[in-house]
Design brief:
The strands form 2 sheets. Strands 2, 4, 5, 6, 9, 10 and 11 form a 7-stranded mixed sheet that branches. Helices cover 0% and strands 60% of the residues. By secondary structure, the protein is mainly beta. A hairpin with a 4-residue loop joins β5 and β6.
Length: 121
C-alpha cells in the first residue's frame, strides 16, 4: 500500500506562486513515479505533471514553463512549484502514485485527499 499526503494549497493572487508537497510512504507493485492531478467541480481529474523516481518529468501543455515538479527520494517527497498562477489553475490538487512507461504516466489507485488551490483575479 502507498500512502500519500498533500500540503501547501491556499489562496493566492493571479501571478503569484505556491509550492505543493506530497509525502509518500509505503510500497506498491510496479510503482515508479508520482503524479500531480487537479480537479474542478463537474470535471474529471487531469494530469498536471509527473516525475519518475529517476527524475524523468512530464507536464500538461497548460502548465509547461510555469510549473516545476521535483522530488526528494530520501525524504519520500514530491513537490510541485507553481509560478505565474492563473485563475484557471484553481482546483483541488491530488497526488497519485503510478507507472511511467513509454513516455506516458499511468495513474494507479493510490491517491491523497487533495489540497485546494484558489487563484484570485
Amino acid at each position: 500500500q502507498v500512502q500519500l499526503v498533500e500540503s501547501g494549497g491556499g489562496l493566492v493572487q493571479a501571478g503569484g506562486s505556491l509550492r505543493l508537497s506530497c509525502a509518500a510512504s509505503g510500497t506498491g507493485s510496479s510503482i515508479n513515479a508520482i503524479g500531480w492531478y487537479r480537479q474542478t467541480p463537474g470535471n474529471q481529474r487531469e494530469l498536471v505533471a509527473a516525475i519518475t523516481f529517476g527524475g524523468t518529468t512530464t507536464y500538461a501543455e497548460s502548465v509547461k514553463g510555469r510549473f516545476t515538479i521535483s522530488r526528494d527520494n530520501a525524504k519520500g517527497s514530491v513537490y510541485l512549484q507553481m509560478n505565474g498562477l492563473k485563475p484557471e489553475d484553481t482546483a483541488v490538487y491530488y497526488c497519485n502514485a503510478g507507472v511511467y512507461a513509454a513516455n506516458n504516466y499511468y495513474g494507479m489507485g493510490y491517491w491523497g485527499k487533495g489540497t485546494l488551490v484558489t487563484v484570485s483575479s
